[in-house]
Amino acid sequence: MAKPAQVARGSVKEKERALAPDFARGLMLLLIVLSNTVFYLWAAPQGPSGWHPLEDSTVDRAVQFLMIVTLDLRVYPLFAFLFGYGMMQLYLRQTTAGTSGRAALVLLSKRSVGLLLFGFAHAALLLAGDILGSYALAGVALGWLFLRRTDRVLAVWSAIAVAVLIATTVAPALLAIAGGNLGSDEFTPDQSATAAYASGQPDFMASMWTRLGTWSVITFVGGPLSFAGHAAMLLGFVAARRRVLEEPHNHLRLLRWTAVLGVTIGWLGGLPAALANLGYLDLPAEALSDSGVLNQLQVGTGLAAGLGYVAIFGLLANRMSDRTKRNPAVVAVTAVGKRSLSCYLAHSVLFSPVLAAWGLGLGEKLTSATMALFATAVWLITVFGAYALERTGRRGPAEVVLRNIMYGKRKRDKETRQR
User: Fold this and answer.
1) What does each C-alpha distance from 249 to 252, 320, 321, 340 come to in angstroms?
2) Per the database record, which ranges form the DUF418 domain (predicted)?
3) Considering only 23-32, 87-96, 172-181, which range has the smallest mean pLDDT?
4) Residue 237 has pLDDT above 90, yes or no
5) Is the distance from CB of 50 to CB of 38 less than 8 angstroms?
6) Rounded CA gap, 109 and 138, in Å?
7) Are 143 and 106 in contact, with CB atoms under 8 Å apart?
């Protein structure tokens, strides 16, 4: 019997890391923590969408407008793209070092199992809106189906995924808007986002069961049906094959066009929902619901915005000189990207016990604007923490656990001694 192929190498070495992917992940986490703020405004009366509250302050309304246009349903495709990009990077590093394609996929599957476990614990203890679980499952499925395929196959299936996304979201939404079929004014959401995410429940154990129920739907139903996430992940595979973020200087034309068109399409797609949410467009309540036409328009154009943001991060990295790359602020943001899993989980550790009703309950007192300030402060805390770890050459704690799951503790200890 032939001996099964072994993993030829361990985790990525520091000298192999490129600035742009980690810098992009660091900035992405700021966008993620801002987009999660609506889950914690549990005492405010909710608007027709069930997500953003009804507020009178001009500052709060301005913050809501910006978040709906630039962040809502725009950040998750960005996360999916970078997740897919990282998967392909890991796969290529392994196979280049001599690992068989199958063994590399087994390694990635172990990583996905670890992420699923992290996602379960994250939801049970802190945040129902965890996205690790859904992307872990998508990573296993898309990884085994596509990571070993040719560039041509990847390009074709990426185009198919984008076409399916447009056909199931943007096209029906535009047809409904053109035909005036926007739904009923009698519609009311089944529950607000804060209820589904349990931030307003004072009993921790009851909130845990609510969070796990919501997480299960997100992970096992919403994830498999997320065509925007699938398309973004496949495009991440394609971009990583071409080293778009590692070598942005070779792809400037692509990055510029993607930045301009992606952000323009994405923001225009979110504009109607932002105007309607603030009362500047008189539309039926159903149009703003999760199944409404404006939400579908946001979902369909969110991929474009996410890709636009990635392109902007790549262009920023390309403009940085060697001196700029050593700037403490750049080093700190990049350090967050290197420890993105730990920092993502740290957001919830700093958020939930302080804001949720089962904790200190401060979410009752905050508004859209003050919550955004709080979220930015939380991100800055993780920036300082990641920078401190970077200065001492230490990985994030969640990354250490995940690498133990992937490579085994004995192999990781051997690598540490060799360094």
Assistant:
1) 6, 11, 12, 25
2) 239-409
3) 172-181
4) yes
5) no
6) 11
7) no
Query: Does the pLDDT of residue 5 top 50, yes or no?
Result: no
Lowest mean pLDDT among 70-84, 358-372, 396-410: 396-410
Number of Cβ within a 10 Å radius of residue 308: 24
Alpha-carbon Rg for the chain in angstroms: 21
C-alpha angle 336/38/29, rounded to 5°?
Answer: 10
The set of residues, in sequence order, having a beta carbon less than 8 Å from that of 116 and lying 6+ positions away, is 132, 133, 136, 137, 219
Is residue 368 within 8 A of residue 55, CB to CB? The reply is yes
- pTM more than 0.85: yes
> CA–CA separation, 377 vs 148, rounded Å?
42
Name the token pair of 399.
């990354």
Tokens of 239: 């971009």
CA distance 49 to 273: 9
What is the per-residue pLDDT across 44-101, written as a single tens digit (0 to 9) for each?
Answer: 887 777 788 888 899 999 999 999 999 998 999 999 999 999 999 999 999 998 889 9
Q: Are 261 and 304 in contact (CB under 8 A)?
A: yes
